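Quick illustration for those who missed Monday's session on complexes.
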Amino acid sequence: MNGLDLMPLFRGLLWTITLTGGAFLIGSVLAVPLLLARRSRVWLVRFVAMSVIQIVRGIPPILWLFIIFFGLGMGFLPVSPFGAALAGLGLIAAANMAEIYRGALSSIHFGQFEAANALDLGRWSTFRDVVAPQAFRVALPTAASYLIGLMKETAVASTIGVTELAFHGKQMSQLTFRGLEVYALVGLFYIALSLPVAWASRAADSRLRARVAR
Amino acid sequence: MIASDKTLIRLNGLSKHYGRLTVLDGIDLEVKAGEVLAIIGPSGSGKSTLLRCINYLEPPDGGTITVDDIVIDAGNPIGRAALSGLRRRVGMVFQSFNLFPHMSVLRNISLPQERVLGRSRKEADARSMQLLSRVGLADKAEQFPIRCSGGQQQRIAIARALALDPEVMLFDEPTSALDPELGLEVLAVMRELAKSGMTMIVVTHEMGFAENVSDTVMIMADGNIVEKGPSKEIMRNPQHERTKRFLRAVHDR
Ligand SMILES: Nc1ncnc2c1ncn2[C@@H]1O[C@H](COP(=O)(O)OP(=O)(O)O)[C@@H](O)[C@H]1O
Ligand SMILES: [Mg+2]
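Prediction with magnesium ion bound:
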């Protein structure tokens, strides 16, 4: 585009991808123990897990990043902007993914567990062969749309100085005084990121559907 | 009709409560190897709970369960080995089939064999195909359950349970979710299974099956056994007022 140097935006894109992917990965993994805790037989464990989920989801992401970066970071736990953003968004993703997993699990018919028990499949096989594949199918579209949401959410990391897409957008618009063009371009970058996710999710979903409904 | 004198299942004082509700009120029951026992009775009388206690899908509160050489004292926590031992000897078929919807028909039958009995995929598939032929569905092996009718799904569920070589099969209203016609094909499979000498406990509303296929009929009401005896005698000449009333009600429908 006439005279704009796009390199910074591409560098920012890389950080946006890294932050999104990292936070999503952390969230997807941490959500498992969180969900197990939420379904624990011990009342206190359940209560703590539910509180964590509510608190993490109840506070705006930007505030979480401030708490981690300016609060914890300036005090006793020095942390880089990227580290703080990854930790904060990872935590938020964990709470959200735990809820997504929970919804997927509760969609599985009671009879599936009953049949697995009657066949004596055992806990592990029941999970791996019966529950997980069905839950995965249900969770997939929700998780994919959450991933897109998370990708957009990473823009808050610019406020603590992570040099991702929004950060470079702001910098570039201030340098060039061409805010409209620059931010439109940044917007296009975000859309370009979300499209493949949406497309892949839809393709996977219809493939899985076709397998059962053949 | 009963092939042997060996008692395969023995329940002593089996009881189950949900809160203050007594669902099983100390059930004593013996089933011989090769016997086909039909359980009938009004809804809510504890028939399903009884079946589900026998394989510990529902842990009973008291009494003992003996199946083959496995003895379980319901008062104590059950060990993993006893639970496995019990479930391997007992196969179960549900009213709602409960096939795994994300697996092919063949996989539904083969996977448990691999996981539970350690059979190889090849062995398991061979056995599955043999059972599918037996229930008349060899051509459905590669389909997914959703593409099969209810009657077909129930026959597949029967094959899946049989694939683990159980000593006894429990059926909880296997035809209640089916149109009468589809129910017939399931009943035909069960009749053949009974002829082959399988020990069966069948909760059913099919009075024809109770009278003509089962050896013994038992009537339950309010968590108790009202009456039990040879099927023809019970169905044609019930002794207890409660049984007469139930059979009349079924008849009048
Ligand atoms: N999980 C449960 N919690 C509470 N009550 C139950 C539960 N399962 C069954 N019951 C009650 O136990 C009684 C017997 O139920 P069930 O064994 O299903 O009867 P049947 O199969 O003869 O219709 C009913 O009154 C039913 O409401
Ligand atoms: Mg019932």
